[in-house]
């Protein structure tokens, strides 16, 4: 196709603002300049399959709160022996808001060096501004990321409506040399990526899926139904509702608990894929309380403590996150031991 033909396609927008074709998606807002898709982005998006289980890995720190790359390498060696589809680096559990941009990129480089070739590296590149996200996304791609996990910008959440978020994600995906995965995590951002925005963004040739951490199964089912014709894939954002998510069409999960009970979370996913729902339900029951403890209840400090119990390096968090209190530590231990994991 000649460039002039491509630009003509990109100019065809319906009166309602919906895009005439999937290829014309790059022209988003009034006054926006037309942009073309990179061939590399198109082909990568078409062939990338993100189904499977990913731990959103923690970032180990020394006692002085520097990134501990030796302990990171030790964890990666152990994760390399588990049947993960890949790793998520610089997600919420990686404490990415507390890292400098240089640290974020360096961690991705180190993980890429250690990761087996058959594993995907999904790197968190979200920033508050679209410009910063584009820049970080390119740095993550250059560092070896196979795809990008882009969290919703949320500081001005009152203005982050569908129009703003569609504009943001489309510009990021337009510019990215690797595919993009949308990331909705309302517990941290106070913002659900609207379903109508997800449906529209699913038509973008360089946006391949969604990590949904909200836990609303009806919402996940609706997203799967409305986007499946696009080859769009949905990942559950927690092991706590993994069975329910698989039941309505999700294809995997990015699960904090997989940092600790990685084999068990992978087993749960395999039971769902195999249609062994009774066994899956029983295993799911035993994972709900530990999962809640290391996510919404006690957060990253609990995840890092549990990692220590199971032979990984968790260590300290970067301030202002604080260690668990004695009472919280005791409760965390109960959540694991009462379900047969300790």
Automatic annotation (TrEMBL):
Q: Name one GO biological process term.
A: glyoxylate catabolic process
- Location of the active site: 183 (proton donor/acceptor), 211 (schiff-base intermediate with substrate)
Protein residues bound to pyruvate: 254
Q: Name one GO molecular function term.
A: 4-hydroxy-tetrahydrodipicolinate synthase activity
Question: Among the entry's GO cellular component annotations, what is one?
Answer: mitochondrion
Q: What class of enzyme is it?
A: lyase
Q: Which UniProt keywords apply?
A: Lyase, Schiff base
* SUPFAM superfamilies assigned: Aldolase
Can you name this protein? 4-hydroxy-2-oxoglutarate aldolase, mitochondrial
């Amino acid at each position: 196709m000649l460039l002039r033909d491509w630009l003509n396609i990109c100019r065809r927008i319906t009166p309602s603002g919906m895009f005439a074709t999937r290829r014309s998606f790059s022209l988003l807002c009034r006054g926006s300049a037309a942009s073309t898709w990179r061939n590399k982005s198109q082909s990568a998006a078409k062939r990338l399959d993100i189904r499977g289980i990913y731990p959103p890995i923690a970032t180990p720190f020394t006692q002085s709160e520097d990134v501990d790359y030796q302990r990171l390498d030790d964890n990666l060696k152990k994760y390399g022996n588990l049947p993960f589809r890949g790793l998520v680096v610089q997600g919420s559990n990686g404490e990415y808001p507390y890292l400098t941009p240089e640290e974020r990129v360096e961690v991705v480089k180190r993980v890429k060096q250690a990761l087996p070739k058959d594993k995907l590296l999904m790197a968190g590149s979200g920033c508050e501004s679209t410009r910063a996200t584009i820049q970080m996304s390119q740095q993550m791609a250059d560092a070896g990321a196979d795809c990008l996990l882009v969290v919703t910008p949320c500081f001005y959440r009152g203005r982050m409506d569908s129009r703003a978020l569609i504009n943001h994600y489309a510009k990021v995906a337009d510019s990215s040399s690797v595919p993009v995965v949308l990331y909705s995590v309302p517990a941290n951002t106070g913002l659900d990526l609207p379903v109508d925005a997800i449906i529209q963004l699913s038509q973008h040739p360089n946006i391949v899926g969604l990590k949904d951490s909200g836990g609303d199964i009806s919402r996940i089912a609706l997203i799967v139904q409305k986007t499946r014709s696009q080859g769009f894939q949905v990942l559950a954002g927690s092991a706590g509702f993994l069975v329910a998510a698989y039941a309505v069409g999700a294809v995997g999960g990015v699960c904090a608990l997989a940092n600790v009970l990685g084999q068990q979370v992978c087993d749960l996913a395999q039971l769902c894929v195999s249609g062994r729902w009774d066994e899956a339900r029983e295993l799911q029951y035993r994972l709900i309380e530990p999962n809640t403890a290391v996510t919404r209840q006690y957060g990253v400090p609990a995840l890092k403590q549990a990692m220590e119990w199971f032979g990984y390096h968790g260590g300290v968090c970067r301030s202002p996150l604080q260690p668990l209190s004695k009472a919280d530590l005791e409760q965390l231990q109960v959540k694991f031991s009462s379900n047969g994991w300790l």
